[in-house]
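I have been asked to look over a protein record a colleague put together. What it holds is a sequence and that sequence's fold in token form. Please read both lines and tell me whether the tokens look consistent with the sequence. I do not need a full report, just your reasoning and any doubts. This is what I was given:
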Amino acid sequence: LQEVGEPFKEEKAVAKYLRFNCPTKSTNMMGHRVDYFIASKAVDCLLDSKWAKAKKGEEALFTTRESVVDYCNRLLKKQFFHRALKVMKMKPDKDTKKEKEKGKAESGKEEEKKSKKESGKDEKTKKEKEKKKDGEKEESKKDETPGTPKKKETKRKFKLEPHEDQVFLDGNEVYVWIYDPVHFKTFAMGLVLVIAVIAATLFPLWPAEMRVGVYYLSVGAGCFVASILLLAVARCILFLIIWLITGGRHHFWFLPNLTADVGFIDSFRPLYTHEYKGPKADLKKEEKSESKKQQKYDSEEKSDSEKKEEEDGKTEATRNSGTDGSGGERHSDTDSDRREDDRSQHSSGNGNDFEMITKEELEQQTDEEDCEEEEEEDTESRPSHEKS
């Protein structure tokens, strides 16, 4: 019976602390604007409060999350807040159809670009086609996600409805506030406003010195507001004059942030801004766009040329291996001829690059060839002596 009755002072204090310290959000419920909070955040908030710390000779009110949940159940039964149910709003079918059509159009454009690139390339061998197919499959898998229209990260709209089971549960459950006490700041601001209105009505009864001071303050404030308004008009006139004289090429703004939604100090800085929008600026923009396009085109050409060089190297290596196996009769068996063949193969495998040979290397090679010829003569002379 006590739980359903009027709340105690301690319960009011806990509910007030939770109301002003627990993070809340606002939404519409049954045509009314309401504030709601999430259960897990409320439990964390109360565990960090003064009631979770033990005083001298007394035990803490909140020791575990379960104790906080039990206490919040008491607050719920005393109608400080009630449990609500999130209901997501469904998007109309028109938006989904438009998104699908956009995705199809973008995928069709990508396929056309790919077909144009493939038609410009030369015909290649079957192995290259198989490699291309494998690469295209991998690219298609990668491009499936970027090809689809990127959905903007928009928050899903939802509405709240009252829940049938009114129980406090620790988790992502939503609870709507019924208890709405007046904050101390709003109370103080209202009190100051009331006092200011009463003082303004009693202005004829003020002392003469105070009335003169207020008069000068009001005149100064009026002059300040008037000067800001005149500056706002003058800066627009100055912009129009410069714009007309230069034919719309120079855009000069004095105090550009004067009427912007910024702070008082930020509204006076920077002092001015200047932009040139003439033919040179257009040329610079075009040059930047052309340079970006050329970089992309060069990167694509490099990738194609690298592939062709690898394929040419492979075909020449296979040809050289065939010539080495079948043309054994044509080439001589001497070591000097074999070395020359190795040099020619090395130069053809590196894409017809020429090797720079110094004089010392040439002299070493000639010395080695002379030594080998002497060894061959010795081998020929030895069996003749053995026969004798």
Observations:
- The chain is about 60% helix and 10% strand.
- Confidence is low (pLDDT under 50) at residues 141-153, 323-333, 347-355, 384-388.
- The longest helix spans residues 279-326.
- Residues 286 and 292 are 10 Å apart (CA to CA).
